[in-house]
């Protein structure tokens, strides 16, 4: 008979997961709840299904009390921006809604465009996001074809790496504040360069002082309850 899922686990702390592509953050949390036999699991910010990289799970009552503290930590992402086509979700999982020619670009063009998107900026929130409008997730409304007014949030952005990987492809790394949508940064960067664009890859490299290199491989999650339990760190921020 399977063990009962408890509210409070025997061991409380944080669990670093390297989320694989095509898993939602909620998929990861559901698996961990089952394997660790606890309902008490929070997180430090979810990732889109297309995105990979660091997901911090907060295991147990004491850890989940610090969720707001973890959510406020700065994050570092690496991404690839495909120029010439915009999708409705601003990433590769969406449908192409517009196309534009890609002008010849130089490294200076990239740096000049990024300067306009550095520091404290106002960023559009993707319609395909988990943000709520009158209690409804925006992505749920978007899937139904509902009309929505564009919402914006203020974020802080620092471009750490920006290079032309191909005539129509930009690879970049950013450090940003909580609430930043890297998909929106890609959309905005493409607009500054006089074209359209969407992300084809996105990876969260770091949350505060926690790095993806130290995370448990999310591809190995199923059926490894004991190994997963041993990775729960008892020290939190």
Structure description:
With 237 residues, the chain is of the alpha+beta class. The protein is built from seven helices and 14 strands. It has helices at residues 25-36, 61-64, 67-71, 107-115, 138-143, 182-192, 225-230; strands at 13-19, 41-43, 52-59, 75-83, 85-87, 96-99, 119-124, 132-133, 136-137, 152-166, 169-176, 197-207, 210-211, 216-217. The strands form three sheets. Strands 1, 2, 3, 4, 7, 10, 11, 12, 13 and 14 form a ten-stranded mixed β-sheet that branches. A two-stranded antiparallel ribbon has the order 5-6. A two-stranded antiparallel sheet has the order 8-9. The protein is globular, with a radius of gyration of 19 Å. The two termini are 37 Å apart. The mean pLDDT is 87.
Which SSEs are present, and which pair or pack?
Elements: E1 13-19, H1 25-36, E2 41-43, E3 52-59, H2 61-64, H3 67-71, E4 75-83, E5 85-87, E6 96-99, H4 107-115, E7 119-124, E8 132-133, E9 136-137, H5 138-143, E10 152-166, E11 169-176, H6 182-192, E12 197-207, E13 210-211, E14 216-217, H7 225-230
Parallel strand pairs: 1-14, 3-12
Antiparallel strand pairs: 1-3, 2-3, 4-11, 4-12, 5-6, 7-10, 8-9, 10-11, 12-13
Proportion of beta-strand residues: 25-35%
**Could you give a short account of the major beta sheet?**
10 strands, mixed
Averaged pLDDT, please?
87
- Low-pLDDT runs: none
User: Which geometry do the CA atoms define?
Assistant: globular
The CA-CA distance between the termini, in Å, is 37 Å
Write down the secondary-structure element order: EHEEHHEEEHEEEHEEHEEEH
For the secondary structure, the number of strands is 14
Which structural category do the helix and sheet elements fall into?
alpha+beta
- The percent of residues in helical segments reads 10-25%
So how many helices? 7
Radius of gyration: 19 Å
